[in-house]
Each structure stands twice: as structure tokens, then as C-alpha cells.
Amino acid sequence: MELKAVDFIQAMLAPGIMISACGLLILGMNNKYSLIVNRIRLLDEEIRKMLTGGNEILPFQQERIRNIRQQLQLFHSRVAFVRNAVVLYSVAVGFFIVTSVLIGVEMAVVFDLQGLTVILFLAGMLSVLTGIIFAVKEVLRGYRIVKLELSGKQNDPE
Questions:
Q1: Residue ranges of domains in the chain
Q2: Could you report the average pLDDT of every consecutive run of 10 residues in the chain (158 residues)?
Q3: Between the CA atoms of 2, 96, 125 and 144, what dihedral angle is there, to the nearest 10 degrees?
């Protein structure tokens, strides 16, 4: 059976779909990372302004500071979840690239690399799955932060 160039290219590009999908996941997670870091900075600045204002800290401000510190702890774990997801998606991209290269080598040089190729592709898929789990944890943690923020709004004197 003669190997056609089209077959060769199609086989090598199959993992490319996953590379593209992971690229979109990484882009979304990097955006979340930036938003979380920005929110951490804003909350930290809010505490700093209350503590360095020179005025006596009122009870509602003490409650707000406590609420912000709880939020910051949750944001810290959110950033870690996002970091883990990005790392796992990036590892998956690496696996998919190697898979694509092995498919090309196997077809061009006629080595039997199917077992290794399948294992690496599955490793990439497991990396994506694990990254998705971290992304879900991050979303759930984000919901807890929103609930915490809203519970603190009830105590504001406004």
C-alpha cells in the first residue's frame, strides 16, 4: 500500500485539534489569572487605605478587613488552581506535539511507534482532564468568594 502525502498530513494533524483546543483553554485561564491577580491587588489596596488612613478603624471597617482577608485566602487558592490548570494544559500541548511528531516519524520511516504514540496521546488527554478538574475547582472557589463578599455587604452602613 502506497502512503499518500494527504494521509501522512492528516494523521499528523489529528493531535493538532487538541493542540488548538488546549491553546483556547490556556488563553481563557490566563485571562482568569490576570483578573484574579488584579482583584487581589484591589482588595489589598482597600485594606491598606483603611489601615493607613490615620483615623480610628470603625467596627464595620474591622468587619470589612476581616471579610477581605478571608477573600484573599480564597483568592490565593484560586490562583493556584488556575496555575495548575495552565501547567497541565501546557503539558498536554507538549504531549500532543510529540504524538504528532511520532506519527510522522512512524509513517515516514516505517517504525512501529503506535503503542508509544497512543500512550502519549492518552497522557495528553489525561493532562487536559486534570486541568479541567482544577478549572472547575477554581470556579467553585470563585463562587464561595462571591458569597463571602455579599455576606459582608449586609454589614455596610450605606
A1: 5-153
A2: 68 84 94 93 90 80 88 91 95 93 81 85 94 94 84 58
A3: -150
CB 127 within 8 A of CB 88: yes
Closest to 144 measured CA to CA, from 50, 41, 75: 75
CB of 105 closer than 8 Å to CB of 117: no
Residue linked to cell 482583584? 39
Task: Report d(CA 83, CA 94) in Å as an integer.
Answer: 17
Residue the block writes with cell 481563557: 28
Grid cell locating 102: 511520532
- As a whole number of angstroms, the distance between CA 142 and CA 138 comes to 6
Contact 152, 64 (CB under 8 A): yes
Cell of 88: 497541565
Which of 132, 144, 39, 122 shows the shortest CA–CA distance to 84? 132
CA dihedral of residues 93, 98, 102, 103 (deg, nearest 10) = 10
Q: Which residues contact 127 (CB under 8 A, 6 or more apart)?
A: 88, 89, 91, 92, 95
